[in-house]
From TrEMBL, chain A:
GO terms for cellular component: glycine reductase complex. The keyword Protease does not apply. InterPro entries: GRDA (IPR006812). Keywords: Oxidoreductase, Selenocysteine. GO terms for molecular function: betaine reductase activity; glycine reductase activity; sarcosine reductase activity. Monomer. Component of the glycine, sarcosine and betaine reductase complexes, together with components B and C. Belongs to the GrdA family. This is Glycine reductase complex selenoprotein A. It comes from Marinisporobacter balticus.
Automatic annotation (TrEMBL), chain B:
It comes from the Bacteria. It comes from Marinisporobacter balticus. NCBIfam families: reduct_C_beta. This is Betaine reductase. One of its GO terms (molecular function) is 3-oxoacyl-[acyl-carrier-protein] synthase activity. Residues 254-329 form the Beta-ketoacyl-[acyl-carrier-protein] synthase III N-terminal domain. Residues 346-510 form the DUF5940 domain. GO terms for biological process: fatty acid biosynthetic process. Pfam families: ACP_syn_III, DUF5940.
């Protein structure tokens, strides 16, 4: 059983850190379902 | 043609305590959604005085009275230390108080939209008479209006109120009855950009002994849009600022790209000069009232002052090669393209190592990286971390991967090739360009040889694309080869003389 199996995931990425699409990419191949993904600007 | 150079830089900050409360979007949104909030009640107690803003070390760095490295000697939070002997005027520019800036809004107003109360106008006249850059403009303040008239504009005709020390002292009128792009709110924000842009522009000219008539072109690169209902964002702040700055021989245009725009503008200006299209191009941007107090809730929660209490503005002159000032290597440009992707490795590769590879350079060959130079005093309490430091660590990590440096040297790299951030979080203002003034010094009379300016922009905020953006460019010490009139370099002249001598010798031998 994988940590992300059956989990719904909300991603808030950071433009100056790890952006949303990059986190999404990391979750591909896990059992996670990405229900929302966005990149925010905190500055 | 040889590379363009950075010939001068001007920087300005404007302390705007009342505009934090009345025009910053964090506060205006809070007043709509939660009018009785604790934050709004506590906010006025956390606003700094003008003296404290002048004495704040990052602000002294911004106008050139201190060096970025001086901040390393001050314990954080920097707002706990007041700089002794701080001055509102610096070698790069100045920190203007709010009342003088309200006068400036009136001085740059071409359509009689700004109305200032009579008594307050008299006070402003006295102040502006003593300002070294605007004393000749004092008559533009006119006589002022009755307070009742201003109240009528605000209460009955949708004018945007202007406050000073919590008192109504003026307003900006709307410019049309129904046009949503000429509302008083939009015109206020646009006049703020124009006025603060003019302030930076005038400081650039004054502090660098530039002949303003020599300026051919101006690129404005802030984040506002001016136009009416038929052309929202039609422009053109650049020409409006050039006009107020007395640049009679200049035209111009606006470049937009969120926070990355100044670096885009720098590359465009350098390319226009290198191509020979223009000899002297100014890039300029004013500040944004919307971002005042943007992270105010976190600052108040942590019992800090509201640190986003200034508008930022800058102006930089890019000119043809003079053999002295640092050159802008427009052949060593980094770009985050549509296809780059968003992983930190892809971003840093496109912006940092791709241009270095073009020049056969290592990551350590750049002496200073000027990335997003946001002041960590502002961003850390708000949970956004230390933005410049995070960027330096990512650059260093890629350097380790490329074997340009050892893993154990990452922190030394961050210290030696990076700088603490000192720019206010005014969007486009921190974007690489606050270092241009220091770069000009350190790459001429200082001991550095190369710097890189990096700008990043959050395009997704405009809801037209999910992408963000970034561009970068290498700045280098001038090798001293001056371009002569007619576009022929000294090197080319030497070659022409050598060729003539050879021809002459061959002619003699032939005889």
């Amino acid at each position: 059983m994988n940590l992300f199996d059956g989990k719904k995931v909300i991603i808030i990425g950071d433009r100056d850190g790890i952006p949303g699409p990059a986190i999404e990419e990391c979750l591909k191949g896990t059992g996670a379902e990405v229900v929302f993904s966005a990149t925010e600007c905190f500055v | 043609m040889s590379y363009a150079v950075i010939k001068g830089a001007g920087y300005a900050l404007v302390h705007t305590p009342d505009m934090i409360i009345h025009n910053g979007t964090t506060q205006t949104t809070e007043r709509i959604t939660n009018p009785d909030s604790e934050y709004l009640k506590k906010l006025p107690e956390h606003i700094r005085s003008y003296e404290k803003v002048v004495n704040y070390a990052p602000n002294q760095v911004y106008i050139g009275n201190m060096k970025p490295s001086d901040l390393e000697e001050i314990e954080m939070p920097w707002c706990n230390t007041e700089v002794e002997g701080a001055d509102r005027f610096g070698k790069f520019g100045e920190i203007m108080p709010q009342d003088e800036f309200i006068a400036l809004l009136k001085i740059v107003d071409a359509f009689d939209l700004v109305k200032i109360e009579k008594g307050f106008t008299q006070t402003l006249k006295e102040k502006i008479t003593n300002h070294p850059l605007f004393k000749k403009d004092v008559e533009k303040l006119k006589d002022g209006e009755e307070l009742a008239e201003i109240e009528k504009f605000v209460n009955e005709q949708h004018a945007e109120a202007i406050y000073h020390n919590e008192l109504l002292v003026g307003c900006v009128k709307r410019a049309h009855d129904v046009d949503t792009n000429l509302t008083a709110h939009i015109l206020f924000e646009n006049l703020v950009v124009k006025a603060s842009g003019v302030l930076a522009f005038k400081n650039l000219i004054e502090k660098n002994n530039i002949h303003v008539e020599d300026i051919d072109y101006v690129i404005e690169c802030s984040e506002e849009a001016c136009g009416d209902m038929n052309q929202r964002g039609g422009g053109n702040f650049a020409k409006a600022i050039a006009e107020c700055g007395g640049a009679l021989n200049a035209t111009g245009s606006d470049t937009r790209g969120f926070c990355a725009a100044p670096t885009h503008a720098l590359i465009q200006a350098a390319s226009l000069v290198k191509a020979g299209t223009y000899e002297n191009v100014v890039i300029v941007a004013g500040g944004a009232t919307a971002k005042l107090g943007m992270n105010g809730k976190d600052h108040v929660k942590k019992d800090l002052p509201i640190l986003e209490d200034v508008l930022g503005a800058f102006a930089i002159l890019i000119s043809k090669n003079d053999g002295v000032n640092p050159v802008i290597r427009t052949d060593l440009v980094g770009r985050h393209t549509v296809g780059t992707g968003s992983s930190p490795q892809a971003v840093i590769t496109s912006l940092i190592t791709a241009p270095l590879d073009k020049g056969g350079l290592k990551i350590t060959d750049i002496d200073k990286y000027s990335v997003e130079m946001q002041n960590p005093d502002i961003t850390k309490p708000a949970g956004a971390g230390d933005v410049p430091e995070a960027n330096y660590k990512m650059i260093a990590a890629l350097g380790v991967k490329r074997k340009d440096l050892e893993r154990k040297d990452i922190l030394i790299f961050v210290k030696n090739h990076g700088m603490p951030g000192w720019a206010p979080t005014q969007g486009h203002i921190p974007s690489g360009v606050p270092y241009a003034g220091f770069a000009r010094e350190e790459l001429t009379t200082g001991d550095l040889n190369r710097a890189m300016i990096v700008g990043k922009g959050s395009l997704f905020l405009g809801r037209m694309t999910n992408l963000f953006d970034g561009v970068s460019v290498v700045i280098e010490r001038n090798s001293g080869v001056e371009e002569v009139r007619g576009g022929v370099s000294q090197e080319e002249i030497k070659n022409m003389i050598a060729e003539s001598m050879r021809d002459f010798a061959a002619h003699l031998l032939g005889e």
